[in-house]
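User: Can you predict the 3D structure for this chain?
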Amino acid sequence: MSFAVLTDTSGNLPSSLVRERKLGVIPFPYFFEGKEHTCLDSESFSGDDFYARIKGGLAVTTSQISPQQYSDFFRPYIEAGEDVIFVAMSSGISGSCNSARIGAVMLLEEYPARRIEIIDTRGASLGEGIIALLAADYRDQGMATGEAAQLLNRHVERMFNVFTVDDLMHLRRGGRLSNLAAIVGMVLNIKPILKGNEEGKIVAFAKVRGRKKSIETLAAQYDKLVAEPERQIVGIAQAGCRQDAELLASLLKKNHPPKEILVVEYEPVTGSHVGPGALALFFESRPGVRSTDSI
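Assistant: Here is the predicted structure, written as structure tokens:
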């Protein structure tokens, strides 16, 4: 292999797929009831229980990964003579991407002949995870580290992250909604449509009435914007709303069926920020799609 492909648990990839694609994953910590937790094994995570507990009032907090932790994470690969491509959560919603850059610089001072590329996906969940899978494809093709990083950054430019939530309280509490004024309030069954913008920040860009309409709106965005669906893995992430995810997947297959639809449960760190009932869609469109603001 020309390089190792590493990512974090925010990428939301199933453990079985992580093993199959030979990815290294560093876990984000989360905290509740006075204890620290991590979730490296998606197969042991009960989303139904976790999101039901949050609905019942469980308070969950999260924290960043330090530069030293990143440096330690990268070290075994660098010491083994490999380069590293690290696929990171959006710098627009977390400082961890910058921590990874600092950790890489620290380590490369010891190993100047090696290379560590940090890919800021400007996304989370499968908006990050799909980029990691593409990195594994390029690794398996024997591509050089620099060439692969350049192509991955092009994919990032085209990756559309769009989602809806049941309650904005979770994003508001974590300070992750950049244009709070765009949403007057969760009244009269109004549902927000949100996206990751060109800086990787979460912004609200539309409102619709009713849950079903919000799901249909996500599918309509896909029909309007998707590019070459037959070549793509399209991602859906859900937080305790599996039936809604199945409905969305069925809508995607009607007009522009993709090569594959990967449906996952939101892992606990990202899921605690979007909250129970969050439903997200990730797919590639044209360059500059992150600036799209029309329904």
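The first helix runs from residue 15 to 20. The chain has two domains: 3-157, 158-291.
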